[in-house]
Fold:
Amino acid sequence: MFSPFTRVAVGNRIIGTGNPLFLIADMGLTHDGDVEKALEITRQAAAIGTDAVKIQVVDYDMLMADRTAKYTYQTADGPREETLYDIFRKIWLEPDEIKAIADLTRELGIELIATSDYEPAVDVLEDVGVSCHKIDTWSATHKRLVQRIGETGKPMMLDMGYSTQHGLGQMLDWFQMAGGHGALILHDFRTDDTAEMNFRNIPHLQQTFGYPVGFTPQGRDERLDFMAIGLGIEFLEKRITLDRNTIANGHFKALDVEEWAAWAESVRFLEKALGNPAPEPPQSDLANAKKFLKSLYAARDIKAGEKFTDADLHSRRPGNGVPSDTIDAVIGRPALRDIAAGEMLKADDIG
Structure:
């Protein structure tokens, strides 16, 4: 069985309760297999506030038994169809190129997260010092891959997508029984049907499994990202590109660097606005309380010695007199002086 961790270390950062929202710039598709482009995205992402960049290591020959399977994606010039084999072939990075990216992330003080689609990729990523391993939803049944990641002792990030609650629990069991600890669960879906997006799953996953939960959007719509923040996610992934007009998979649905920077600024604003999970009035309201709360006033002329009744008193602004919520303690007590109608009561007016 899995054991819950409300905080998970990813390299030099902590994800989870009480820590800043962890932002991931996903360039798994948008480096186009060009290491220089990947390095430039990494530099730009670090400069605009990302905590990590993400790549993927896919052996297209090993993964694609059917090399004719096709996939249609959107570009700036409209839809385009390619074989999945060619798509994965075009984003291949050699081990020394992955090492160059990992070295740069360490130099820049950010983390490297990488998706593996086959077991030997885990070894490549361990050799370069990846901070966190990830598997996508289509590897949810790849038991040996999950176990190999568990053996590394590094945290594992996993997409929900296809997975049910039972399937997720099964993956976590495989991971932990192999020696893994510190899982990170990404709420994920591949649908445009809002009725199937199931964002209420986010707090459910946190309560059920005890691990940090994040969100990985499949498009540009920031409204969904912001809703996920309000629901309490602890990390957030967003695709980044140097040029959305690049005619290749992933670019059109990504944010360019300037857009990503503006998005990150909005995320940090919303994160700060979440505040604490308890009633806590702002300083501005506390400062205004004397002006806008209510005090007790005489509703009629009251003679010294008369006992106060409800009919004798009104609650009116400002709130720098006898607080109106103390009325029950005032009723039945004598007035110590003559009080004119419309006059604010003072503490030394009450016997």
Remarks:
- The mean pLDDT is 94.
- Residues 257-274 form the longest helix (18 residues).
- The longest strand covers residues 235-241.
